[in-house]
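Q: What would this complex look like in 3D?
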Amino acid sequence: MKKIALLTALLIIATSCNKIDTSQEVFSIISPVKVTPWDPEYAQTVVRKIYVEEFTGHRCNYCPAGARELEALMSEDPNIVVTAIHCTSLANATSHVLFNKNYKTPMGDIICNDFNIKGLPQATINRLRINETEWNYSPSQWRSTIAGINRNDVKAGIQLEYTIDEEKQEIEAKVAVTIIKEIPNPVQICLILQQDSIISGQLFPNDVIDGEYAHMHMLRAGFNGNYGTRLTPNGIVVEHFKYSTTFRLSYGNSFPYSQVPVIIKNCSVVAYLIDMETKEILQVEYIHLD
Amino acid sequence: MNFELRIMRLFLLAVFCLLPFCLSAQIRVGSGTISGDFSFNGMYYIPDSLIGAREVDSKVRGNAWLNLNYTNGGFSTGARYEFYLFPLIDFQDIGYQGQGITYFFADYKTNFIQVTGGYFYEQFGQGLTLRAYEDRNLGIDNSLLGGRVRVTPWKGIQLKGVWGIQRYNFNFDYTKRNDNVRGLDAELALADMIPKLSDNGVTLTVGASFVSRFEKAEDKMFNIYIDTLQYHDFYNNNSIFEFTPTDRPNVIRVQGVIPSENIPQNVGSWATRLNFGIKGFRLEGEYASKINDPNLSNDYIYKRGEALMMSASYSMKGLGVSTSFLRADNMDFRSQRDAVPAYAALMLNYIPAINRQYSYQLLGNYGYASQPNGQIGAQAQVNYQIPRRTKIGGRYGTDITVNYSRFHDIQKTFVPLSDTIGTITGTEGYTSKFFAFGKNLLYQDVGFDISRRLNRQWKLMLMYNYINYNMTLQGKPGMINGNHVGFELTYKINDIHALRLENQYLIIPKENNLDDKDKGSWMFMLLEYSISPNWFITVSDQWHFGNEKKLHYPNGAVAYVFGTTRLALNFGKTREGILCIGGVCRAVPASFGLGLSVTTTF
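A: Here is my prediction, written as structure tokens for the whole assembly.
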């Protein structure tokens, strides 16, 4: 009996202390970026996608033709991702009942300005630089420029997932960037929300107006700034590592400039990886929100 | 009439209805007896902007409780009802507010075993590992709800086991609690087991205890500050790209997290103790240690805690000498790791203050608060009675008490990682040499008092103290360096009537870097007229004469005692300060008003 009591007491004592090993740091710094080794099998499946920023405006009469050209390219090559950025004075809202909506965004205006977009329609293709001050390609150059990009040069893969919190009216986008080849320059990941099938007016040549035009791939907002955020303190990422993080975007209130509501089923999240030195888009991924 | 006034009136009515009942002694019920006690402390508050007595929402407030116990042979049971729904503002400020049956128990005791279920109080040794106790004046009730077993298998051996959840003010929804406490204690009274020892006047007791607290762990978030230039390796290695700038160049703030798996859910504390005595000499010592217990009071560090308390005393006719030593390091031990350190609620253990405890009004305002997380100090006291019927001692003898005590913080060398991350949270915190004193003096007191009966009618006591009191103990700046002088004169008019006069000065130089409320000297005077054994009439005043505001805190009180019942009425002002009992303190807000207190036991 005494032995049992003694053993019970010892057992209670032995199991009633949790000694924590402090020879290793017991805490960690909360970083939105989780860094893990890559998955080589996934890397094998990654293809280089092309990102086209289509600069357009509802009062730009040649823009519908540009849009048709891009639709054709996209149907031929599913690895082309297009975002339509409404900018310049041709995208301004007017008192005309068919043009009184403003589809410009602060982010789009900044990109438009930074990439020196003057006339419409124009496009950047992977933000490849033409010369010191120009990135903008005319519709006639789009096909050939896309064809000239080396698709075998796959530097990174992007994986996207999302969840929608309808109560909070919030989109949570999880992005994982796998670095397949060495990237010598700092990079940033940028996520945007774009929306299809916004029915509104569009000017065509000869002052023809289509009041039921479906505007596609329209940039609505950025998740994490105009040029995204770094994945590491200095922006340098390491080959064969995967950088995962999460961003949230609230769509409850109308975005600046616009009273056009966000219809989730018509929206997509686009994520692209930017080489901050050359400004080139190294990879892009797209996911439609159902 | 608002709700609280109605409730308060009901209670006042209840007080007076209970009085006749309380006047009788214990009530016999069959072969058992019912006993208990009742207390009511009420006050009508009057705002006074001069002394900082604030306007309170419910002007009439009171604390009341009733204990009822039934005892029949080895069986006893009891309960307590507390009514603190509109408590005195002191208690409201510390969160002790509510009402209900706050204590109930059933206990069965034989020579071999004692079993308790319900709420109980318990102490292991000096309390360094466990002291579940109550102090109504401080608003502390750290009782445990659960079970306790005490076994005495042989004469001189006592084993105790406890398991329970600690009371937390009036939060009685224990289903929401994620913490509990287990404890074991063993004590061997060797002198009881070995008659030869007791025959030679030796007492020798050894004991050991172990207490473990369980609390479910959750991730702990905290701020990290990094100098990105000085600690760029750490900065680069931690994938920091989201941060908040600070007002210091190059220093950024980031969020750190201690994951729940790195927070100990079971925290154990153990202690060993020894009591030895032979004739007039007595030696007591207890050493306690606690494993990693990151909590709010220690900034979530993982350092082991430890405490040592030793005392030695010698007494003979007319002479008593005692010395004590105490060191405590990271020993704040509570039921919940996020318990607020400023309050004594949820304290599991007790690190006492070993300095001399004064009842003098002015010194009481600067009572030393024990620092479980870092203090080292000692005290010595000599009591000597100059024999009666001698030239110096006089006809009735003269009592002299001399004492000295000094407490510092402990020496700390912070771990290098704490420099890098700008906080000790999540690290071992610091190392500390066991007997090294920290550079900050917390408290020092050197003083004496002389008490002498001059003749059959007059008795005089003179007192002097020099104190250094670090105001950080009250969360304020500065250090009190004061001389305290005073006297107490009692004039016994006859066997029934007596007068007592107290006069004290606390001389604090103005140049001390003190809060305005503490700057400058104080005077206290009290005159008490007593008509034995029933009436006590007192008038007093604390005067902050050394301060520019020269505030007075007058008070008048009348108390009537009959049997075991005491009724008291007082009117006056109370200064803002602290109330300390045994090194445990609570803040006292400034107040002005009319008070009524009733206490009775039966």
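A: To summarize the key features: The two ends of chain B are 34 Å apart (CA to CA). Residues 3-23 of chain B form the longest helix (21 residues).
Q: Very helpful, thank you.
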